[in-house]
Amino acid sequence: MDYGILYAMDNETKRIVVAFRLAGEPGRRKLNGFFRYMADHQLDWQLQFVSIREDFNAEFVRSFAERGIDGVAFSLPAARDGAAVLRESDIPTVALDTFDDSLFAGRERNLVTISSSCEEIGRAAARHFLSQGLYRSYAFVPDLAGHTWSRLRGEAFSDELNRNGFRTAIYKTRGKGYDLPKLRAWIEKLPRPVGIFAACDDRAVQVLEACRDAGLEVPLEVAIIGVDNDEMICPRTTPPLTSVQPDHARIGELAAEKLREMMDGRCLSRPRHIAVGVKRIEVRESTSPVSQSGRLVQRALAFITAHYAEPIRPRDVVRELKCSRRLADLRFSELQGESIGRSILHTRLEAVRRMLVATNDTMENIAAACVFSKVERLRAAFRDRYGVPPAEFRKTVRGQHAVNSPPNASKTGAGGRCGSGGRRRRP
Question: What is the pTM of this model?
Answer without folding.
Answer: 0.67
